Structures are given as C-alpha cells and as structure tokens.
Amino acid sequence: MTVTTTPTIEGKPIQDYLGIVTGEVIVGANLFRDLFANIRDIVGGRSGSYERILRDAREQAIQELQAECAALGGNAVVGVDLDYEVIGDTGSMLMVSASGTAVRI
C-alpha cells in the first residue's frame, strides 16, 4: 500500500476518496530508559532507546492507518500527517498519531 505525505501520487490517478483514516499509538516511559536518557543529556549524544521507541510507535501508527484504509477498500493513503505529543499528568506518555485520506488508485 502506498502511503505518502503528498496530496497525490504521480502517475496514479485517484479513482475514489474514501475518507479520513487515523492510527494512534501511546507508549509509556520506562524508568531505566529515562535514567539513561538523562545521563545522555548530561554527557551528550543520542538516545538510541528513545529513538527506537519513537520509530516503533511511528511504524505502528502507520500500520493502523493502513489497516483502516484497507477496511474501507482503499489501496493508498495520501496527505499523511504525523504528530508527536507528550501526554499524562507527569508527561510520562508519548502519543504518536498518523492521519491521512484513504483513496483507491
């Protein structure tokens, strides 16, 4: 299935617009991951554990988006927008959301 941030897919005309589809994933913070990320903040460098969590959450949100599209009979999602939001009373949760328009090309 084609998933793109652009409103069209070059060379593939859109036959039907099927509606807005979304995928959301909420992941909790981990005490040990947070501890090591704080150490990285002090000494510098990238936090591989957080990067993996973000990547996995983004991929899961896109998979949900694709499943919703397929359920509507679509074979592509255009105009995809990805958002990241810290949620929870203490900011201990991260939400990744993906939204776009399901289409049949």
Largest sheet: 4 strands, mixed
What number of structural domains do the residues give? 1
The CATH class label is: Alpha Beta
CATH architecture classification: 2-Layer Sandwich
User: Any idea what the shape is?
Assistant: elongated
Mean pLDDT, all residues: 85
By secondary-structure content and strand pairing, the structural class works out as: alpha+beta
Q: What portion of residues belong to β-strands?
A: 35-45%
Secondary-structure element pattern, one letter each:
EEHHEE
Low-confidence regions: none
CATH superfamily annotation:
Hypothetical protein apc22750. Chain B
Helix content: 25-40%
| CA gyration radius, whole angstroms | 17 Å
Amino-to-carboxy terminus distance:
10 Å
Helical stretch tally: 2
Family: Belongs to the UPF0145 family.
Protein name: UPF0145 protein GRI47_13790
InterPro entries: UPF0145_dom_sf, UPF0145_YbjQ-like
Pfam families: YbjQ_1
How would you describe this protein?
By secondary structure, this protein is an alpha+beta fold. 35% of the residues lie in helices and 37% in strands. It has one domain: 2-Layer Sandwich (Translation Initiation Factor IF3), CATH 3.30.110. The chain is elongated, with a radius of gyration of 17 Å. It comes from Qipengyuania pelagi. This is UPF0145 protein GRI47_13790.
